[in-house]
Records
---
Amino acid sequence: MYALAIHGGAGAMPRAQMPAARAAQARAALAAALAAGFAELERGAGSLDAVTRAVMALEDEPLFNAGRGAVYTLDGHHELDASIMEGTTLRAGAVCAVRHVRNPVALARAVMEHSPYVLLAAEGAEEFALERGFEPVPQSYFDTEARLEQLERLRRAGPGRLELSQLGTVGAVALDARGRLAAATSTGGITGKRFRRVGDSPLIGAGTYADDRAAAVSCTGHGECFIRAAAAHDVVARMRFGAASLAAAAHAVVHEELGRLGGEGGLIAIDAAGHVVLDFNGEGMYRASRVAGGEPRIGIYRGAGEPD
Ligand code: ASP
């Protein structure tokens, strides 16, 4: 058995406002990233390769808030965060507030595999990237019209309640044929964030976690709440110590714990038996999954025509 699930964030605009062409574009981008990651599993590669490949594809896709297409900070920059974790060994790597790294998830993996550390920040991460041979990209590489308009709207409106459309993080979780789990998450953070603000995505236990004894988890949503809830690890802990099923553990975290904190968002998760959960407490979450022998399932909202 092997399986892969991905998300493109809880940043879907209300269903009634979503232009059909944009929804179709998002579904196609999800399908392409899912196929790229799933091809790794099909050729016998590990779950770590599958999540890296899928998240890199989503980072390269300007529709999503990670890599190219990342949101702007209040002062008009892009600062990216990413993390990755291997469930067999509990090895993990992460980077935060990087400005010149094309694929932050690849750098997070390099931190895991080629350094004694888990998390490198800002200039320290950029220096490590250069040492590892990552070609730096200018900030303009991440620019998109849509994200700039979003920042300008926010500047005009002044700081207010966080809107999910300011989100759009990406992530992936996978189980490979050898029973190994992995998770990865990558983001530009939240539109109009203060510079050096760091959310849950690069924090192991908050936005990302993987443990072969339970599940691999990647989160998206209002990062401050996910940090306070230790959301990704909470799913794993409920399974390991409370004997909860993956679905029950994910439901409790997304709807009870995060709900209690007013934290909008969701998560994708997969357990060692290949059960996949894609749960969210807002109107939508860009998501896709495929299990060995099955067809790709792609969704944005709930209800008719959408997978569970
Ligand atoms: N969780 C991310 C953050 O707070 C945002 C998102 O999921 O889109 O940085």
---
Amino acid sequence: MSATSEHAVWDPVEMLPRERLRELQLERLRTTVAHVLAGQPLGAARLREAGIAEIGSLEDLPRLPFSWKSDLRDGYPFGLLAVPREQVVRVHASSGSHGKPTVVGYTRADLDAWAELMARTFTMAGVRPGMVVHNVNSYGLFTGGLGFHDGAERIGTTVVPASAGFTARQAMLLSDLGGQVLCATPSYALVIAQAVRDAGLDPAELSLEIGMFGGEPFSQAMREQIERELHLRAMAVYGLSEMCGPGVAGECSARDGLHVQEDHFLAEVVDPDSGDPLGDGDEGELVLTTLAKEALPLIRYRTGDIASLDRTPCACGRTFARIASLRGRRDDMLIVRGVNLFPSNVEHLLVGVEEVAPHYRLIVDREGPLDELTVECEPASGDVDRAELATRLEHLLREHTGLRIAVAVVDPGAVPRSEGKAVRVVDRRG
Ligand code: DLL
């Protein structure tokens, strides 16, 4: 690591001049394509079909065929491995809200690389050796638990592998063990904040300094709410199991987008419908190509996440491109009477209203031919005129989204809490 200041950099590669970075990416893309051709039958067949035998330059990237989450499901569990199963030392899986989970495998070298990526991510967020890292991401198939754990150990912090659950005990442990860094999904961070208050503890008196949050989208308003409630600086971490887990991208002290670990992942943004490449700054679907994965290389993987890329220089000096906006998953986008709406759009408006607690969900139903959307949320305290609040929120939503959205202000605690990723959309359309 180069320094102990907030501008510390774990690996000098993060500062590589872009020309050199592109050379490294080209070399690694060639290796990855050769690896897929030799070891991953589905990927190899796609490449051959597209007439790709080798890579001339990075400009060839848009000619390569896409890969999809459905490829992993179809190949469940081990069909996409590019190494013999015996070389896989660990598996993880994504949540699998639609049937079977997607299983991903790691070789010893993949795990080592992932720990390095997480070490970079922690360092970039301002975490220093010797700090106490309280990790409430669930340990198990979810990559949030062991992913944060291995990176935190790699940089030399004291890790508390609290995992998710037993929320009342989390508050006690945070206080007694002096956690300085909290790793969580943003929605669970708020549940922990409540548990801290319920335990009669003053969050200002905890030792928390930094929050490392990811696994689900969170709006700027939600970030500020978490910072107020837990007295920490909230840093975003992005990743997906198919690439490794957390550590694909993360925020630096400038908090001006999430730096993509571009020596490990090639990032593009494409039009979600046509698949055509989009320019920097344009919002579309994030597509990632692994550049150093052994067990599960993926070429032009359609993440389903809507984002844009920014390659302008960053104040921190890192040369890696940044994900400038992460609006949510394409599957979570609702189309209500022809208007596209992300849960994060609603979140942003709700959380900005003082009398509303930051727990909400969107319920979509069908009344006759039209989809009806109801936002369920809770009052921040018991002595609020709920009917008046609901009407006020309906006006606010109407004004900002152009849609007539019903608001139900329910009892405090009635919106289900999550210990991992919050379920923001409930679809009751048959
Ligand atoms: O959620 C990995 C992870 C864990 C990342 C903890 C960061 C922190 P999956 O379960 O495979 O992996 O889900 C991946 O979660 O495609 C995004 O839709 C969403 N996601 C992850 N991080 C963010 C973020 C982990 N910072 C899916 N902002 C991804 C918005 C995020 N969405």
---
Amino acid sequence: MARAPQVHRTVPALRRALETFRAAGDRIALVPTMGALHAGHRALVREARRRARRVVVSIFVNPTQFAPNEDFFSYPRSFAADLKLLGDAKADLIWAPTTKVMYPEGFATRIAPEGAALAGLEDKFRPHFFGGVTTVVAKLFLQTGPDFALFGEKDYQQLRVVTQMAKDLDLPLKVVGVKTVREKDGLAMSSRNAYLSAAQRAAAPALYRVLRQSAARIRKRETIASVIADGRREIARAGFSLDYLEARHALTLQPVATRKDGPIRLLAAARLGETRLIDNVSV
Ligand code: PAJ
């Protein structure tokens, strides 16, 4: 039986617990999450354990990264199952603040990321999103003071934005990206996959299939513009409403015209009914 991780809900209790880790000379890795944990989150915890003696997982459904019309209130919450998964994954500490602890009355400061956060991808469809993410992630970094922080490539623009924020603010930690964990049929694992109907779930793997095929065609020197145009059609034909399919520079997320413009990442977001899926691959 794995030992149950400690759970803390206030900043002073968190700080006291982390102090004992540090006093023992242990390095700390942080895995920020919104709960509803699955094998993708578990892979982040596994990588965290490889890097540091102590693993802290935060669970906080962050209201500031949801727009009023988005799914903050219906976002899946499964604390008991999350605790069990994190016990099995041998996390040491769960940081689960309430909204009042994170955003007390009078809270008035926000991070305003630029660069990759204004690339015209997620930000175009969720303009409030990266301000909310960077604000909460900066707080989590300052609350826990980790040596490493683990983020999934599944949310590729988020990974780039958080990496840049840590660099720009001289935060003394290393942001580490972890490969996307997928279902057997290729669908990227996501807490939001639970929203899909059986028919939508059957259609969903098309997103990754098109991304992979498009990457293979670009590697074979087909022109990016025509590959992307075909990919957009394919995704629509599979039953999605497409938000975007784009070829971007893998680091800056700026548009690329040819393979010579640098390492390329293909990024897509598309909706099946009300459920929005995102995915990406390297070329
Ligand atoms: P959440 O969606 O819970 O994701 C937490 C972390 O798990 C993110 O770094 C995300 O990229 C990673 N992740 C999700 N699905 C994955 C998969 N299939 N494979 C690998 N990693 C995966 O992302 C957030 O929460 C929030 O925006 C947060 C960073 C916690 C700030 O509120």
